[in-house]
Amino acid sequence: MRQLTKMQLWLVAGVPMVVGLTVPALAQNPPTPKLPTQNLPTQNPPARTYQPGYWQPIARVNPKQAVTVVLLNETKMPLKYNFLDGRADNDLPVGGNAKLNNIALPVNIAIYNPSQEAASGKAGGLRYETSAKGNTIEVRVQPVEVGGYRVLNVSKGGGVYAY
Prior knowledge:
four-stranded mixed β-sheet
């Protein structure tokens, strides 16, 4: 592509000024790319478009059917859980479970260690081993040394996420 310089005379505050502008010059008849006229072969195996990350659901349920969430405390500490919509906290005792029926989607459920050590960051975190069978989501809450999850999210579309 060529560059053309165009000179213009401008009058600025009563003072004449010459301004040079550079603009690209396009060919009058650019070449047309040749496209294949035959069908291209498909890739075998197909291209992989899955990219792992927190944005990928760890399980799925059918959002058009009733959803049940089962929380299992596999830690050695009493836990609490609540829906992040203003409902009260509930206890999840050591070795205990909670069955939450007919959950309306979307929903966020916080599962946490209410101890002072956890609040100050001195206790480890929680891991949610999550699976879905039918429209029941089972969440096995387990301890981890560092990091972990705080919230289970089930989206309006039925994707299950842990943050």
